[in-house]
Amino acid sequence: MDWEQAKAYCEWAGGRLPTEAEWERAAKGTTHRRFPWGNECPASWNDVCTEVEWTPTTARANCYDSNCNDGFDSTSPVDQFPSGKSPDGLYDMTGNLWEWTSDWWYRSYTSAAVTNPTEPASGQDRDIRGGGWGTYGSRLRVAYRANERPDHRSSVIGLRCASSVP
Amino acid sequence: MLKRIYFVQRKPTISVFCFLFMALFLILSCETGEALNFTPDQEGVCPPRDARCCPDDMDECSFDEMREAGKCEMGSELDYGVKKGRCTNERVCRPVGLGEGIIEFACKERCEEHQSACLDANNAATCIDVSTDTNNCGGCFYDGTGSRCAEGVSCKNGYCQLICPSPQISCGGVCVNPQSDNENCGGCAAEGRGVKCMSGLRCSNGECATECAEGYVPCGEACINPNNDPLHCGACSLIGQDNKCDDGYQCIDAECKPFCAEACQNGGTCSAPNTCTCTAGWSGDTCATPVCSPSCKNGGTCTAPNTCSCPITWLGQDCSKPDRVRIPASGRTTTFIMGRPDSDSWGNTNEQPSHEVTLNAYMMDRYLVTAASYKLCVEAGSCTAADTGASAPMM
After folding, report:
1. Are A159 and A9 a contacting pair, CB within 8 Å?
2. Are the Cβ atoms of B312 and A22 closer than 8 angstroms?
3. Which of B357, B374, B376, B378 to mutate to test the interface with A (most CBs of A within 10 A)?
4. Which among A74, A88, A141 is the nearest to B347, CB-wise?
5. Contacts of B339 in chain A (CB under 8 A)
6. Residues A109, B338: C-beta atoms closer than 8 Å
7. Considering Cα of B167, then B170, then B174, then B179, what sign does the dihedral take?
8. Could you state, in order of their start, the residue ranges of all structural domains in chain A?
9. How many CB atoms lie under 10 A from the CB of residue B227?
């Protein structure tokens, strides 16, 4: 679905799309970690992940082929990977589907400390986060950023909704 | 994706059900050139409409011809399952609805072991227990594998059976009282279970005897129990004094009471022949259907009075609340380090500099939005169809 459709869904479901900052906070908790579940790679693949010792247990996320050893050729049920939950108990924060955020894409962080960032005011692309079922494992990191045209419809981009606490 | 199989009628039909009985005479139209590949968790056409369903040189073929060609392997006729290479993830091909001259099939969850995929009164496909369902007794009515029991007749073990109020039993299509029927004493004589009492003996408490047993009184040529005999309820029916209960009534404690062939459940009472008056929270002919008020939303099913079983991602008594997590769990704000700190050497420059960010507390969906949830939004008219690509995980 495209960005407008994602936005319409969240409004129907009594919410809104999350900001990029809200997404990242939900994925990592309050302290830095590489993946929602911690610093261990989702599976052992041979590039960057060799620097972290990996013990094969259960798959933690749905990503590209052997990068995640998840057993799914495309999307997976939304409660498939409990061992990949974020500190706040959210599933599939990385992997399975990219997620639209409400922010326009901007290239680099500039501010040192901010409150409720929603920048910038306009742009060409929307910020997407999380990585999908066809994404390399290294892009399942919670800090990884990507962008996509708002009118792009793809089988790898989905969404989750947020809402404000009154 | 849901497609249809069209049956082309050779004769005009009066009703859909006439049409169904003619199923064997109908022609299944196969579309040529279209090969459909089933992918996990996707609905698809089944039996496949591609030309490979039919014998090689035929564009159209009947079910029998199709099966004979061996190109589409049909599963059990009861559920029209297509087993090989078609529906995946344990799904089977099932009818999902019936329109005028059309049966739609799709890959659906398999029915439970004791159930078959039949069409209900609204021609919607449901998994039905054909051992007890009066409209699909012994099999589905729509495909001729089962029958529809007449009014007042119940389905038991897959057979339509006349249900008689105790102490009567079904015998040759009528209800008889084996406790006092001289022709069927102790059981249905035609079924070899009881006996016909010899001349001079009378059936009393299920045995042929010279005298009426305790609790039984002489009544013409018979011994009757006025407490439970619907022909002699309260007293022997004599000429000019008819103590027979009306049809649909039984005799309980010497009084005629309405009889419900299928027992009223969940505290319901039989208030008129085959009519249950249900207690609060229940509905249906036998009070077996729970009522949820408010009704279950977002694809939830009512499993007990005011209890909805919600699909994953939805919560609340009526499944109207998305499953969202509060971040932070408590407190009005949350502060975290956004981006990749220098201590983590692995990543891109646009993830830096890392910086402290404070957010007002917010809620976030615990799960990705499912295709099923998105479809609900489309059906509500608030979303447009996500026509390119699978937009969200299937359940």
Report:
1. yes
2. no
3. B357
4. A141
5. 24, 109, 143
6. yes
7. negative
8. 1-106+121-166
9. 16
CATH superfamily of A1-106+121-166: paralog of FGE (formylglycine-generating enzyme) (3.90.1580.10)
> Which of A26, A75, A154 is facing B394, going by the closest CB pair?
A75
How many domains, chain B? 1
CB contact under 8 Å between A15 and B363, yes or no, is yes
- Contacts (Cβ under 8 Å, ≥6 apart) of A40: A52, A54, A55, A60
- Give the gap in angstroms from C-alpha B262 to the nearest C-alpha of chain A: 41
Distances (CA, A) of A40 to A60, A89, B45, B207, B365: 10, 17, 42, 81, 24
* C-alpha to C-alpha distance for B70 and B65, rounded to whole angstroms: 9
pLDDT per residue of chain B (395 residues) written in tens, 0 to 9: 333 333 333 223 333 333 333 232 222 323 322 333 333 333 334 444 322 334 455 545 555 555 454 433 333 322 233 333 344 444 555 565 555 555 555 556 667 777 887 877 777 778 889 998 989 999 888 778 888 988 778 888 888 888 888 899 988 888 899 999 999 999 999 888 899 999 989 999 999 999 999 999 999 889 999 999 999 999 998 877 789 999 889 999 999 999 998 889 999 999 999 899 999 999 999 999 999 999 999 999 999 999 999 999 999 999 999 999 999 999 999 999 999 999 988 888 999 999 999 999 999 999 999 999 999 999 999 999 875 444 345 33
Q: What is the pTM of this model?
A: 0.66
